């Protein structure tokens, strides 16, 4: 098979530039394989995060030809190989080195969310029907691609006021857990800034786990906030759609 | 100690943030200890996240007849009676309570129609026993433990790698390591240290394991004077992906067979009928792996050197619901729709039964103050691990290690660490930058993987193993002269230069143990000694470092109390092997 050219960002906090590498393409190869080839043969100090190489751990997030993706799930034969394949680190997070970014902000936000709190006296009888929708949220592999793509963070830098789609997914998983007894509506409005989300659905589009972040997590959570407080964007959505979406 | 380096102090230091490390941390905190957790990757990315099929525990939610005795018996039988009986007993008895802990911390397992945790069938388990969430059980487990740990406020040092254990006399007193990001060195002082570093799969070329599985924990323990046990027992999972080349080795969960998947060769024969007519596809992993290997070797393999695994006789919706990641994995990486046609599968290095020798009650190693739990420890699984018994192992012995480490920490004072140990650890780490024109660690690693794959794989023979030892010696020599370029900032080549040393040491331990065991048992198959041997059935191999040289000795398998022997009476004898 032919060779491919990878154009990879090399640099750190001080800045950087792209480097081109020629990589032989094998059948079924993914972008992460190409990066490993570069490490093993051309640039042993090329920094990249990865663990499972099976789309299960959410470590290998990057922007391939401008699109946020898991490198271990992006097939080379799905990319136009007549041009260089551009591999860049996630843009929304501060760069550490090459393809590795500083995602520690996510771990700080996560600490703000009160943990699972079972209702006192529960008998732990839980049925699959009640579990199905929560299991969707629990599929999240914390790749932070949704965080990377969300314009509230990416373009408007609202890192102080806004938790981002990943953490709405986490809160949805707690709020809709059949045994959890705590309300996180005030937190969603005041600290996690759910009001900043204007339902563009870009997060849903990039989620490798195909979680319906906007429809199944964010909108029902906004409903909950509205039930307690007022949210202008959701009011608008309700008006446009002319439906009263319940938290399905 | 003078503090040239950043230094942190804890009662209990836990190395590893997979299931075992997090369980240890949660329990040590509950005991009132101050706890630090160090891990090479980001929190939540440890190997445990990849586990698919489920957690074994005799909850008897689906098959009412199940109980700990049957689980104990299955585990011992699967391990060909080389297991530490007490570990197998504690594991079987405590696993159900540990599942309940997970549920109370928010885990959401798949459910039975009467609202209990659903359990599925798996190889070697008499009853439906594996608690699961589709085929992403490990993710559910690690996220639950991570959330619990975060809520309790554990200190986590992420992307930090330990390269040496530090000692005060005979007792362990802390650890030395580096931050992956900046390459700065760091010292941890601790009254107890728990190793929860996982396995060794990266010594093989074809493996389901991640980059983290470089045998660090076993090498750290070995260098600190601890004993390793059962190192010849490396599990080759029968079903890894074989095509396309880039995905070779990626796991195809046993749950596919648990849900009814059928194995066939290229002639369409259901070949397990020949190898284990009773249990068929749900035979133990050692048997199925050898069966596939044999079919391929005898010319009945698939186009790319594997066997066909077919679940497409089940309704498509059912397959997508119960095996969603497998469905996506094959569709996206191999262009195969598993609801319509078979997968091509073959053996892949998956798990190591051997590891740090520990006390069954406390998980303490033979070095005082040093504990080990999870895949890094030996004993529970004997010669072969049953699917699902690892995740339950992490829950049961992770907790036990955390408890014992915290209790022991109450009784000792923070030790002093002499600077010479720290200086030596620093010098070792910097050496590859200073070596002149040596090779890149990547090249040596590739050759190590080839050597182990070819000479110390599924089927072993004296001449190959001897040759492997010679090759390993040459590789060790090359590694002494290896060279890395660049700075210390997030430099994977430099990171590998350390990992490679661990892998070389442990590869030698695997090879020496395999050479010594002149019989075939569980995961260890010798072409030149194809049957069970009664004498070997009663002893474990133990490896330790004596003044820098690797020593191997045998030790009797601990004798079981009578009431447990009765549980096994019918078959123990048959499996022990009638000597020759
Ligand atoms: C694909 C796959 C599927 C599996 N499915 C199942 C299943 O269904 N059921 C089952 O029971 N088992 C399964 N297993 C096996 C099981 O997942 C593992 O054995 C288990 O998760 C190991 O857990 P652990 O806590 O021992 O280690 P891990 O989860 O691997 O954690 C090791 C930790 O140690 C850290 N570490 C390692 N070295 C260092 C160092 N030098 N310094 C600092 N930190 C270090 C790592 O960063 C990591 O945090 C599966 C394994 C694989 C590969
Ligand atoms: S839907 Fe909301 S959270 Fe998702 S990308 Fe758009 S603004 Fe961000
Ligand atoms: S919600 Fe999806 S995109 Fe966002 S972190 Fe989780 S898996 Fe990634
Ligand atoms: S390496 Fe785990 S998701 Fe890509």
Walk me through the structure.
The complex is a heterodimer of chains A (248) and B (580). Chain A folds into 2 domains: 99 residues, Ubiquitin-like (UB roll) (Roll); 138 residues, Alpha-helical ferredoxin (Fumarate Reductase Iron-sulfur Protein, Chain B, domain 2, Orthogonal Bundle). Helix content of chain A is 35%, strand content 15%. Chain A contains 10 helices and 7 strands. Chain A has a 5-stranded mixed beta sheet. Chain A is elongated, with a radius of gyration of 20 Å. Chain B has 580 residues and is an alpha/beta fold. Chain B has 3 domains: 290 residues, FAD/NAD(P)-binding domain; 113 residues, Alpha-Beta Complex (Flavocytochrome C3, Chain A, domain 1); 99 residues, Up-down Bundle (Methane Monooxygenase Hydroxylase, Chain G, domain 1). Helices cover 38% and strands 18% of the residues of chain B. In chain B, strands 1, 2, 6, 7, 8, 9 and 16 form a 7-stranded mixed beta sheet that branches. A 4-stranded antiparallel beta sheet of chain B has the order 15-10-19-20, with helices on one face. In chain B, strand 8 and strand 9 form a beta hairpin. In chain B, helix 3 crosses helix 11. The complex binds flavin-adenine dinucleotide, iron/sulfur cluster (SF4) (2 copies) and FE2/S2 (inorganic) cluster (FES). One iron/sulfur cluster binds next to helix 4 and helix 6 of chain A.
What fraction of residues of chain B sit in β-strands?
A: 15-25%
CATH homolog superfamily of the largest domain in chain A: Alpha-helical ferredoxin
Structural class of chain B: alpha/beta
Average pLDDT level of chain A: 93
């Amino acid at each position: 098979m032919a060779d491919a050219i990878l154009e990879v960002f090399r640099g750190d906090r001080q800045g950087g530039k792209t480097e081109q590498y020629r990589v032989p393409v094998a059948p079924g190869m993914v972008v992460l394989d190409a990066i490993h080839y570069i490490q093993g043969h051309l640039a042993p100090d090329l920094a990249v995060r990865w663990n499972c190489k099976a789309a299960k751990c959410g470590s290998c997030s990057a922007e391939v030809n401008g699109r946020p993706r898991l490198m271990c799930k992006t097939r080379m034969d799905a990319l136009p190989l007549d041009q260089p394949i551009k591999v860049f680190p996630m843009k929304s997070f501060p760069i550490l080195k090459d393809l590795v970014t500083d995602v520690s902000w996510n771990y700080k936000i996560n600490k703000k969310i009160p943990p699972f709190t079972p209702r006192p006296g529960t008998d732990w009888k839980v049925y699959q029907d009640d579990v199905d929708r929560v299991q969707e949220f629990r599929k999240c592999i914390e790749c932070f691609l949704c965080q990377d793509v969300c314009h509230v963070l990416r373009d408007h830098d609202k890192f102080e006021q806004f938790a981002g789609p990943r953490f709405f997914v986490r809160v949805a998983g707690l709020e809709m857990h059949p045994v959890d007894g705590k309300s996180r509506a005030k937190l969603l409005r005041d600290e996690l800034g759910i009001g900043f989300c204007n339902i563009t659905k870009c997060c849903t589009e990039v989620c490798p786990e195909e979680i319906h972040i906007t429809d199944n997590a964010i909108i029902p959570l906004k409903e909950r906030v509205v039930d307690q407080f007022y949210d202008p964007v959701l009011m608008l959505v309700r008006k446009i759609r002319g439906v009263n979406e319940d938290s399905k | 100690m003078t503090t040239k380096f950043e230094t942190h102090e804890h009662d209990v230091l836990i190395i590893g943030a997979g299931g075992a490390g997090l369980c240890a941390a949660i329990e040590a905190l509950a005991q009132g200890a101050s706890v630090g957790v160090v891990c090479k990757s980001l929190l939540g990315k440890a190997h445990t996240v990849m586990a698919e099929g489920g957690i074994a525990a005799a909850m008897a939610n689906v098959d009412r007849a199940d109980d700990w005795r049957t689980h104990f018996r299955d585990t011992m039988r699967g391990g060909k009676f080389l297991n530490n009986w007490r570990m197998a007993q504690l594991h079987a008895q405590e696993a159900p309570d540990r599942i309940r802990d997970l549920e109370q911390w928010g885990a959401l397992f798949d459910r039975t129609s009467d609202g209990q945790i659903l359990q599925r069938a798996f190889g070697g388990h008499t009853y439906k026993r594996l608690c699961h969430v589709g085929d992403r059980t490990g993710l559910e487990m690690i996220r639950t433990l991570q959330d619990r740990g975060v809520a309790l406020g554990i200190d986590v040092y992420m992307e930090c790698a330990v390269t040496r254990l530090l000692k005060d006399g005979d007792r362990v007193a802390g650890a030395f390591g580096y931050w992956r990001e900046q390459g700065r060195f760091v010292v941890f002082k601790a009254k107890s240290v728990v190793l929860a570093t996982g396995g060794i799969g990266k010594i093989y070329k074809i493996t389901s394991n991640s980059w983290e599985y470089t045998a660090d924990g076993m090498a750290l323990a070995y260098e600190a004077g601890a004993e390793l046990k059962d190192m010849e027992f490396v599990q080759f999972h029968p079903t890894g992906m074989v095509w396309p080349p880039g995905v070779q080795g990626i796991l195809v969960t046993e749950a596919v067979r648990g849900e009814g998947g059928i194995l066939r060769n290229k002639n369409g024969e259901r070949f397990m009928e020949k190898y284990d007519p009773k249990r068929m596809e749900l035979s133990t992993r050692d048997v199925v792996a050898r069966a596939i290997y044999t079919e391929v070797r005898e010319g009945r393999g698939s186009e790319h050197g594997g066997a066909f695994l077919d679940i497409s006789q089940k309704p498509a919706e059912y397959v997508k619901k119960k095996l969603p990641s497998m469905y996506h994995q094959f569709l996206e990486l191999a262009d195969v729709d598993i609801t319509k046609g078979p997968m091509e599968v073959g053996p892949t290095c998956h798990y190591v039964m051997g590891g740090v020798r520990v006390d069954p009650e406390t998980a303490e190693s033979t070095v005082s103050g040093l504990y080990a739990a999870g895949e890094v420890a030996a004993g529970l699984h004997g010669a072969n691990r049953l699917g699902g018994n690892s995740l339950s192992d992490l829950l049961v012995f992770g907790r036990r290690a955390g408890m014992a480490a915290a209790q022991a920490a109450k009784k000792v004072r923070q030790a002093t660490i002499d600077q010479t140990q720290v200086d030596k650890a620093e010098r070792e780490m910097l050496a590859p930058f200073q070596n002149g024109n040596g090779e890149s660690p990547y090249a040596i690693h590739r050759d190590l993987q080839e050597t182990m794959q070819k000479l110390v794989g599924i089927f072993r023979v004296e001449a190959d193993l001897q040759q492997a030892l010679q090759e390993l010696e040459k590789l060790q020599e090359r590694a002494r002269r290896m060279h890395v370029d660049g700075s210390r900032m997030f430099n994977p080549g430099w990171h590998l230069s350390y990992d490679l040393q661990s892998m070389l040491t442990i590869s030698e331990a695997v090879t020496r143990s395999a050479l010594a065991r002149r019989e075939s048992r569980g995961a260890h198959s010798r072409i030149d000694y194809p049957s069970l041997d009664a004498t070997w059935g009663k002893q474990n191999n133990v490896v330790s470092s004596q003044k820098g040289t690797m020593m191997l000795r045998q030790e009797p398998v601990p004798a079981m109390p009578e009431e447990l022997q009765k549980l096994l009476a019918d078959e123990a004898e048959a499996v022990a092997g009638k000597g020759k």
